[in-house]
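Ticket 4471: requesting a sanity check on a complex prediction with zinc ion. Repro inputs:
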Amino acid sequence: MSMIENLENIKKHGMEEFLKNEKIRWTCTECGGTVCVHKSNCSNCGRKI
Ligand SMILES: [Zn+2]
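Returned structure tokens:
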């Protein structure tokens, strides 16, 4: 494996981790709905985050 491939892997997995964390952050813990970024409450059940 070359250095460039290593860097590409880190970049790829780093982005996946980032997206995973973002998904957790904006998912309602109560119903699994999407949390409104601007209002900070769930668009599905209205739970305040
Ligand atoms: Zn909810």
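Notes from triage: The first helix runs from residue 3 to 25. Leaving this open until the requester confirms.
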